[in-house]
Design brief:
This protein has 259 residues and is of the alpha/beta class. The protein has a single domain, classed as TIM Barrel, CATH 3.20.20. Helices cover 42% and strands 14% of the residues. It contains eleven helices and eight strands. The chain has helices at residues 16-26, 44-60, 89-95, 105-111, 115-127, 140-144, 148-159, 187-205, 207-212, 226-230, 247-254; strands spanning 5-9, 37-41, 68-72, 99-102, 131-136, 170-173, 215-218, 237-240. An eight-stranded parallel β-barrel has the order 1-2-3-4-5-6-7-8, surrounded by five helices. Helix 3 links the parallel strand 3 (68-72) and strand 4 (99-102). The protein is globular, with a radius of gyration of 17 Å. It binds 2-phosphoglycolic acid. Residues 9, 174, 179-180, 218-221, 239-243 line the site of 2-phosphoglycolic acid.
Length: 259
């Protein structure tokens, strides 16, 4: 059975103190029990205090230990070494991270990440006990040319080339034209791509992995559109940017799935 995941991608927003304040505000808004998994992706320097905060929270609300996690927006694939300015997955693992984003479109377009580099990150995440969240998605130009599935297939093939099939993985479908633009994919349009990704996973990795892998949608998710998107059978959660910066809008998205 796959789980429904709602993830906050804070990008380069929130100081460590602001991250902690967000958690303070979000906590009383979370239903008990929580029916989805929540993941926060803070900045790297925000992660250590956040990790400590979650440890404290788990003590007073132990039911959240299984459903309230954090991850990193990026990390290097080597365990250590001469890589100035980078953060290793070993460090993340030691701090208690559970997830790592790989190949977010901003990493692809602004930092030139692609191909085997992403495959190595996915593989290292898995060997470090982290769940990689591989992001894929087409630009508007590619969609208009009818190339969306070709591009997504290339990204899946490259990103998963070194992955282990026994370790968990998650996929986030984020059409580039929907990220930060306020232009969300139509629920049916997103569902069609999610269904196609699941079929691709089934063909390449088998039915068990395909049916157990959560495929998240990302791109201008908001409290207004989350419910309808969450009702689609192949949409297993959200990767939320802008609307994850305020605890009330993020909470509304978390609870959009219902029970
Ligand atoms: P957005 O960002 O929700 O602001 O569109 C999503 C993302 O980049 O992960």
């Amino acid at each position: 059975m796959r789980t429904f995941l709602v993830a906050a991608n804070w990008k380069m927003n929130k100081t460590p103190a602001e991250g902690l304040q967000f958690v303070e505000e979000l906590l009383p808004q979370l239903q008990n029990p929580l029916h989805v998994q929540v993941i926060l992706f803070p900045t790297i320097l925000g992660s250590a205090p956040l990790a400590q905060k979650l440890q404290e929270i788990w003590k007073t609300r132990p039911e959240l230990k299984k459903s309230f996690h954090w991850g990193a927006q990026n990390a290097h694939y080597e365990k250590n070494g001469a890589f100035t300015g980078e953060t290793s997955m070993a460090v993340l693992q030691e701090l208690g991270a559970k997830y790592v984003l790989v190949g977010h479109s901003e990493r692809r377009t602004l930092f030139g990440e692609e191909g085997d580099l992403l495959a190595k990150k996915v593989a290292t995440a898995q060997t470090q006990g982290l769940t990689p969240m591989l992001c894929v998605g087409e630009t508007l130009e590619q969609r208009d040319k009818g190339q969306a599935k070709i591009i997504i297939e290339q990204q899946l093939k490259a990103g998963l080339a070194r992955a282990q099939t026994q370790a968990p993985i998650t996929i986030a479908y984020e059409p580039v034209w929907a990220i930060g633009t306020g232009r969300v994919a139509e629920p049916q349009q997103a569902e069609e791509v999610h269904q196609w990704i699941r079929a691709w996973l089934q063909e390449n990795w088998g039915v068990e992995i395909s049916s157990n892998t959560s495929i998240l949608y990302g791109g201008s998710v908001s409290p207004q559109n989350a419910r309808e998107l969450s009702q689609k059978p192949n949409i297993d959660g959200f990767l939320v940017g802008g609307a994850s910066l305020k605890s009330d809008s993020f909470s509304a998205i978390i609870h959009s799935k219902g029970v």
